[in-house]
Design goal:
Two copies of one chain form a homodimer. Chain A has 450 residues and is α+β, with helices and mostly antiparallel strands. The first copy, chain A, has helices at 21-40, 54-58, 63-68, 87-101, 140-157, 169-178, 185-192, 195-211, 215-225, 231-242, 246-264, 330-339, 362-374, 388-398, 408-412, 436-449; strands spanning 44-45, 51-53, 71-73, 79-82, 105-114, 126-135, 162-168, 272-274, 285-294, 304-309, 323-328, 352-354, 379-381, 402-405, 415-420, 426-430. In chain A, the strands form three sheets. Chain A has an eight-stranded mixed sheet with strand order 1-5-6-11-10-9-7-8, sandwiched between helices. In chain A, strands 13-12-14-15-16 form a five-stranded mixed sheet. In chain A, strands 2-4-3 form a three-stranded antiparallel sheet.
Chain lengths: 450, 450
C-alpha cells in the first residue's frame, strides 16, 4: 500500500513555453532598449485588453487569422477572442479615444499576442509584439522619424552591421499604372514580395498566373525591382522610370526627401538604403515601407518592418486616421543574437555574490550587501552556510562575476577577499572606513571579465 | 441613399480597460522600479504561458477561483484556462524545472492575470501581479531579504512613511496549541485576519461560530493580537506567552532574529514592526508573514504582502520545495499614488518639444533633436508647420517641459529660443560650437519646473 498521492503532471501546452532566466533576461533587456528608444522620440506607452469582442478582432482579419484566433464564450455569454496582433486593437483604440488623445498621437505597445498556429512550422502560439506608430499626420516628418527610430533601435541593441531598406508604395503603384497593371497591383506586389525568397523566375511566373501579367510586363516589373546602386543612382533611375506619372513622381520625391533627411540626421548611407524590390505584402500600406536586415544574418529576414497607411481605423470610425509605424521582431532578433553569440548564458541579474559562513556574521554581510547595492551593484547573499566550494560552484554556474568571501579571519581583520569568478584571482579589500575600497575594486574585476 | 458603410462600435469588454498614456506611464515606471529592486537582490525574471491545461490551474484552487477562471476548449480540443494568479504557474514551473535551475532559486514574475470576477465590487477582470520568491531554502536569511526587498521597493517607489508589518505563523500556531485550539487554527486565523476590517467584537463572534472557540478562548487570541509597543516590548510579551511551546518559541526566535537583522541592514524600526494581529488568511503560509501599509492611507489595505510556505509544488512533485515570497499590489499602489498626488498627468515621456516651422529647416531640427537625444533627453519634433501657438498648446497639453523654438531668424543667427512651458519664460541658446549651450540650459529649466 502506497501513501503517495497522485500527482498532476507538470507540463505546458503545445506551442507554449516557459521562459527561464537565461532566456528571459536578454528578452527583458531587448524590451527595455526598445522602450528607451521609443520614448526618446516621444512615443508614449499604451496597453489594451487581451480579450476583446470577437466582432472587433475579426473586423479586418483574413480567413487565416480568423481560424487562428483563440475564441470562446465568456462568463456573460459574450463571444470573445484573444488579440492576435497589436494593429487591430490599435485601430479600435484610436477610433475610441482619438478625440481625447489629440493628434499627432505617438504610441508604442509592447505586449503578448496569441495565434493557434500550426506549430510544425516552428512557430509559437504565444509571442510578443513590439510596435510603434504615429497616427493622425500625413507629414513625411513622421516617416523620417520612423526610419530614425529603427536605426537608433538597432544601434542601441548592439548592431553595427545592418541595413534599413526603404521603398515607397507610390513608386510601385505609379510604375504599375504606367505599365497598365494598376488593377492587379495587389497580386503583383504580393508576388514581388517573395523575390528574395523564391527568385525572379518564380516571381515572374506568379505575376503571370495570379495577376494575369504578360511575360513582358512581369519582366519590366522585375527590372525595376532589380535597380541597384548608390542612393543617387537609384533616385535618378527612378526619376526616369516614373516620369509623367504623378503618383510615381510623388513617391520618388518622398524617397529623396527621406534619404536626405536621415543623412542630415547622421544615419550613414550604408545603413539606410532604397530597395525597390521590397513591397510588403499587406494591402494597407500606401506610402513609405521599411524592412531591416542584419548584415551577418540576412537570411533570417526582416527584423523590423512597417510602413505608412492611409486609414487605420475605417472599420470603427468615419474619421480618417493616416499614420505610419513599424514593429520590432523580438523573437527573430533574439534568435539572431543567440546565433551571433551576443547573448551570454547567465541566469542571474546580479554581478556580485556574497558567500555566507555563519549566522553571527550575518549583520556584516547584510551591511556589505546594502553598501554595494547603494553603489549600484546587484548583489546576492547566499542564504545557507554550505561549504565555500559548493557556494562558489553555485555562483559560477549562475554567472556571477565576483564573489565576496569573508570568513571569521577576514572579518576580524576588517577586510574581505574579492574573487573573480572568471579568472579565479583573489584580492583583499579593506573595510576600514566603509566599503569604498570594495566599491572601487569591483568595477575593475567586472571590466576584466567582459 | 447613403454611402456610409456600417461601422463596428469600438468598445471594450465589461471589466476590461484601455491604458492611455497618462495611466500607462506611471504603471511602467512602477514596474521598472520593482524590476530594478528585485534584480538588485539577485532575483531573476521568468515568464510562463498565459494558457495552461485547466487541470494544472485548478489543482489548488478554491471553488471561487475555479468559477472565475476563463476556461475553454482550444483548437486541439484541450481543456485550457487563462492563469488567474502567478503562484500556481510558479508551482508548476518549479516542479518542472527545479532540477535544471538548482536551489536556492530566486525569481520575479511580473505579468497579467485574469479572473471573471463580479465587476460590481470595482474589480477588473484583467490585472497585473508583481511577485518575487526564493525557493528551495528554509534559511531565515531568505525571510530577512524578503523584508529588505519590500522595504527598498517602497523607498524606491518614493514612499517615506510606510510600515512593513511582520508576524510569524508559528507564534500564532504555538499559542493556539497552548490554548487548545490547534485543530481549529485555520478558522481562527481566517477570523483574526479580519480584525482591522470588522473589529474585535465581530472577530470574537466568528471565532466562536466558525471555529467553535469559547468566548474565553476568543478573548485570549484577541488579547494576543492586541499586543503593542516597541519591538523589544512585543518580543518580551511574546516570550512569556509562548513559553513552553516549542513551535511558539521558534516563531518568536525567528521574529527576533529577523528584526535584529533588518535593523543591522539599516531599516529604521518604524518601518518594520512586529504586528501580532496579522494572520494572512491563506492556509499555506507556515512561518514569517508580511503586510505593508502606507502611513498616509492605511485604509486601502496592504500594498505588499507575502510569507513563508513549507511546500510550494506538492500537487505536481514529491520534491519538497519550501520558500518565501511576496507580491506588490500594483493597482492598489497606483490608486494610492494617484490619491496622494504622486502622479502627474503627462501624456508624453519626452521633456523637450521642438517646434516645426518649415521644410527647409528640417535638417537643422533633426540635428538638434539627435544632439539632445545623444545627451540623454527624450525629444519630440512636431511634424507639421502649424501656427506656433497651436504647436505650443499641443506641447503644453501633453506635458512637455521645454520647447525649442527656432524659426528663420533664430537659425540665421545660429541660435534657438528655449521656452519653459511652465513659466512661459524664454531664453536664447547659441548653437555655435554645437548644442552644448542648449544641453546645459535644459536641465536648469527642467529643475525649475518640478
Amino acid at each position: 500500500m502506497s501513501n503517495k498521492k497522485k500527482l498532476i503532471q507538470p507540463r505546458t501546452l503545445k506551442g507554449f513555453r516557459d521562459y527561464l532566466p537565461d532566456v528571459m533576461m536578454p528578452r527583458e533587456e531587448l524590451i527595455n532598449t526598445a522602450r528607451r528608444v521609443y520614448r526618446s522620440y516621444g512615443f508614449a506607452p499604451i496597453d489594451t485588453p487581451t480579450l476583446e469582442y470577437a466582432e472587433i478582432l475579426l473586423g479586418k482579419g483574413s480567413d487565416e487569422t480568423d481560424r487562428q484566433m483563440y475564441r470562446f464564450e465568456d462568463h456573460g455569454k459574450r463571444d470573445v477572442g484573444m488579440r492576435f496582433d497589436l494593429t487591430v486593437p490599435l485601430a479600435r483604440f484610436a477610433a475610441q479615444h482619438i478625440g481625447d488623445l489629440g493628434t499627432p498621437f505617438k504610441r508604442y505597445h509592447i505586449a503578448t499576442v496569441w495565434r493557434g498556429e500550426n506549430t510544425q512550422r516552428g512557430r509559437y502560439r504565444e509571442f510578443m509584439q513590439c510596435d510603434f506608430d504615429t497616427i493622425g499626420t500625413k507629414s513625411l516628418v513622421a516617416d523620417i522619424e520612423t526610419a530614425l527610430v529603427i536605426h537608433d533601435l538597432m544601434v542601441a541593441i548592439g548592431f553595427d552591421d545592418f541595413t534599413v531598406r526603404v521603398n515607397n508604395r507610390q513608386v510601385l503603384s505609379g510604375l504599375l499604372e504606367k505599365l497598365g497593371l494598376a488593377e492587379k497591383s495587389t497580386e503583383i506586389l504580393r508576388a514581388l514580395d517573395k523575390l528574395a525568397k523564391i527568385g525572379a523566375e518564380k516571381v515572374a511566373e506568379e505575376m503571370q498566373q495570379a495577376a494575369g501579367a504578360t511575360a513582358e510586363q512581369a519582366a519590366q516589373v522585375l527590372k525595376l525591382a532589380e535597380i541597384e546602386g548608390t542612393t543617387d543612382d537609384i533616385l535618378i533611375a527612378l526619376d526616369g522610370l516614373v516620369a509623367g506619372n504623378e503618383k510615381g513622381e510623388i513617391g520618388v520625391g518622398q524617397l529623396r526627401d527621406l534619404t536626405q533627411a536621415t543623412s542630415a540626421a547622421g544615419v550613414p548611407s550604408d545603413r539606410l538604403q532604397i530597395d525597390v524590390s521590397i513591397a510588403r505584402g499587406l494591402d494597407y500600406y500606401t506610402g513609405t515601407i521599411f524592412e531591416t536586415f542584419l548584415g551577418e544574418l540576412p537570411g533570417i529576414g526582416s527584423v523590423c518592418s512597417g510602413g505608412r497607411y492611409n486609414d487605420l481605423a475605417s472599420l470603427y470610425t468615419n474619421q480618417e486616421l493616416p499614420g505610419i509605424g513599424a514593429s520590432l521582431g523580438l523573437d527573430r532578433l533574439l534568435a539572431a543574437m543567440e546565433e551571433l553569440g551576443k547573448i551570454d548564458n547567465r541566469t542571474t541579474p546580479a554581478e556580485v555574490f556574497i558567500a555566507y559562513f555563519d549566522e553571527k556574521s550575518l549583520p556584516r554581510y547584510l551591511q556589505i550587501a546594502a553598501q554595494l547595492r547603494g553603489a549600484g551593484f546587484n548583489v546576492e547573499l547566499y542564504p545557507e552556510a554550505k561549504k565555500i566550494g559548493q557556494q562558489l560552484k553555485y555562483a559560477d554556474r549562475r554567472g556571477f562575476k565576483v564573489a565576496v568571501v569573508a570568513g571569521d579571519r577576514e572579518l576580524e581583520e576588517n577586510c574581505v577577499q574579492l574573487k573573480s569568478l572568471k579568472t579565479g584571482d583573489s584580492q583583499t579589500a579593506s573595510l576600514s572606513g566603509g566599503a569604498e575600497e570594495l566599491i572601487a575594486a569591483i568595477p575593475q574585476i567586472l571590466g576584466s571579465t567582459t
